[in-house]
Specification:
Blueprint: H1 4-14, H2 17-45, H3 72-80
Length: 81
C-alpha cells in the first residue's frame, strides 16, 4: 500500500498549476494555525501567564430614568398589534 506522502505526490501530479497553488496555500494555512495554537497552549500551560484583569470602573454605571406613563416596551408591543 502506498504511503500518505506517495499518495499526496500522485494527487499533486494530477493537478493543474492553479490547483497546486491552492493546495499549497491550504497547507501553509494549516501550518500557521497549528503553530499559533501551539503558542496558545504553551501560554495556557504556563502558570505565570494570566489574562489581563479589566480595571474597576471601566464600564460606567447607568441609573435608570424614571418617567410617568407606561413603559416604552409595553408601548412598542401595543403599537405592533
Amino acid at each position: 500500500m502506498a504511503s500518505a506522502r506517495e499518495m499526496l505526490r500522485e494527487t499533486l501530479d494530477s493537478l493543474n498549476d492553479a490547483e497546486v497553488l491552492r493546495a499549497l496555500e491550504l497547507v501553509r494555512h494549516l501550518r500557521s494555525t497549528q503553530q499559533g495554537s501551539g503558542l496558545l497552549n504553551a501560554l495556557a500551560a504556563n502558570p505565570d501567564v494570566h489574562p489581563p484583569v479589566a480595571p474597576e470602573g471601566c464600564r460606567p454605571t447607568v441609573e435608570p430614568i424614571e418617567v410617568e406613563g407606561p413603559p416604552v416596551s409595553r408601548q412598542l408591543v401595543e403599537a405592533r398589534r
